[in-house]
Amino acid sequence: MDKQTILNVHETMLVIRKFEERALNLFETNKLRGSVHLSIGQEAVAATVGAYLRDEDYITSTHRGHGHAIAKGARADRAMAELMGKVTGYCGGRGGSMHIADVDKGNLGANAIVGGGIPHAAGAALSAKMRGTDQVAVTFFGDGASNEGIFHETLNMASIWKLPVIFICENNLYGMTTNVERVTSVKDIAVRGAAYDIPGVVVDGNDVFSVEKAFKKALKRAKAGDGPTLIEAKTYRWKGHWTGDPEMYRSRDEVSSWKEKCPILRLEAHMIENQLLTEEQIRTKHQEIDQLIDEAERFALESPEPDPSTVLDNVFDEGDQ
Amino acid sequence: MREITYAQAIQEAMSEEMRRDQNIMFMGEDIGVYGGAFGVSRGMFEEFGDKRVRDTPITELAITGCAAGAAMTGLRPIVEIMFSDFMTLAMEQLVNQAAKNRFQFGGQAAVPMVLRTPGGSGTGAAEQHSQSLEAWVCHVPGLKVVIPSTPYDAKGLLKAAIRDNNPVVFIEQKLLYRTKGEVPEPGDDYIIELGKADIKREGSDLTIITYGRMVPRALEVAEAFSQKGTSIEVIDIRTLVPLDTEALISSAKKTGRVLIVHEACQRGGYGGEIAGLIADSEAFFYLDAPIKRLGGLDVPIPYNPNLEAQVVPTVESITKAVNELL
User: Fold this and answer.
1) What CATH code is assigned to A3-302?
2) Among A69, B134, B254, B326, which one has the highest count of C-beta atoms within 10 angstroms of its own C-beta?
3) Residue B127 falls within a domain, yes or no?
4) Do the Cβ atoms of B64 and A316 come within 8 Å?
5) Do B72 and B102 touch, CB atoms closer than 8 A?
6) What residues contact A308, with CB distance under 8 A and at least 6 apart?
7) Strand order of the sheet with strand B258-265?
């Protein structure tokens, strides 16, 4: 990874972290409602993948999708406005946290159905292939989704058609509250690729360089027309399944042991060691992002509510060919 | 005018549209090499090749989801679900995804796709290959629903569905596939706008509102009644969503008697929606009799041919219902 990419990935991770910390704070102070799922602790996966995608490449995401959206180019202010259901949000307040889409940047949407976005990425990849472009599609999903039928159906389809799609399983050890080991037949979800003749790779999801290595290879494979790759990123969410989760299913010790593997601190240690940024410069970067998030919050709070008379808009596209 | 079958009309609509627009593709189970379980797409694989006429694994959910993803990114997919019963396997992607993507993204995407699927009983295919599930999809905002009854309508409506920028569920009637009707020559690019009912027979004493394969039965009943001096109007709604409410209300006002006929189970069927719509309208004050529904019995479709014939409306049961209203 070159220096500029490392700086970009670092910045993206900070934006995701601070965006979500702020979202939690706003939820706890009743300025934000609904169901908010935080990816704090998992930022390395989204940020690294995002750094190697172009605007014209596609992603599909999950209910835990703020990081994916930001990594694919979403602005913090419009994303925060969407969380607040405001008209300036990406979806005009219609979708909220679980449905942020940013189609101009290739984000075909977060998805509140476990596994729901997986076939959309295959479809986008098929579309790219049919239209003769070199676009690729990436689908993010969790360990839980790998037990859904749609995961298996789509892997098979993507394999037979050699689609330029990359399946990224963020295994954060819990499908909602249930430990992955209790409900999953395999230790490494990546081995499921073998059933569909798709390479499966396990990476340290808290290490940007580990993600980078596997993703670049997958990207090369997809663009060469050799088909999909399944990447399993082992990671951990520091917060509960959602903002109201009492977290009775895991120990405090387990959570703290993962906090010691913080992907941001790890990258920062690397950056200092390799003299990419000084501690002082890193502090300044943090302040810059804090400011960006302050502005995002202000923008979202000050943005207007949707006009009630527009509630029926966009059920259908009124135009046709 | 030349006569072609309902199946040929559907094939012509797809082929003509695919010649017109390179971004239209067609996928489904056994639709390519084999030409479709009902032979609808015979010849298309040869003309358009295995990329645009794409045989898929038996995976209704992934086919539908893949189509939705392709539709949001520049293609206009047509999907065939071999029997409408198998829509149940595709429901997550159809109902939670394709129907809602545009709305939930605040209009950022369109999902121009058509899901074609044959529905209905009468072929001895029993409980899991004979259902009429249109009410399920009519209930979901974001889906359009079309059920044609003639080759002419099938071709014109399918072309409109393919050009529509929204997900359209196009339910074909498997017992009508081999029926023939007049259809303009291939070069004649006619379109039938979605949301327009068709008065298949004009009348003044009673209106039968129906669709799909019950249309020919209603017409047979209307013809028989005309011999006895009773004039029955037969309205084919053709598009269930959007529904041509004006045509239905105006016919109810004209005749004062309304019978709604469909093959789908009566309980929770679309006939209830139509009855409610008329009861809620100014047509109520013109009615000379209660609005009557005649749907299928609330049982699964049985295998035995005599039992099978007994559970959906017949010429006899429609005749009886008309007599009860007169």
Assistant:
1) 3.40.50.970
2) A69
3) yes
4) no
5) no
6) none
7) B198-201, B232-236, B206-210, B258-265, B292-296
Tens digits of residue pLDDT in A135-174: 999 999 999 999 999 999 999 999 999 999 999 999 999 9
Among candidates B66, B101, B106 on the partner chain, residue whose Cβ is nearest the Cβ of A122: B66
Cβ contact (<8 Å) for A101 and B109? yes
Same domain, B153 and B205: no
pLDDT tops 90 at residue A35 = no
Structural domains counted in chain B: 2
What residue numbers bound the domain in which B175 lies?
Answer: 3-182
A242-297 pLDDT per residue, tens: 888 889 999 999 999 999 999 999 999 999 999 999 999 999 999 999 999 999 99
Nearest to A150 among B65, B67, B142 (CB): B65
Sign of CA dihedral A241, A242, A248, A252: positive
Helix (H) or strand (E) run with residue B5 in it: strand B3-5
- Which residues of B are tagged catalytic? 129
Portion 27-66 of B in contact with A at CB < 8 A? 51-52, 56-57, 59, 61-66
Mean pLDDT of all residues in A52-66? 98
The DSSP call for residue A175 is: E
Q: What is the pLDDT of residues A202-243, one digit of tens each?
A: 999 999 999 999 999 999 999 999 999 999 999 999 999 888
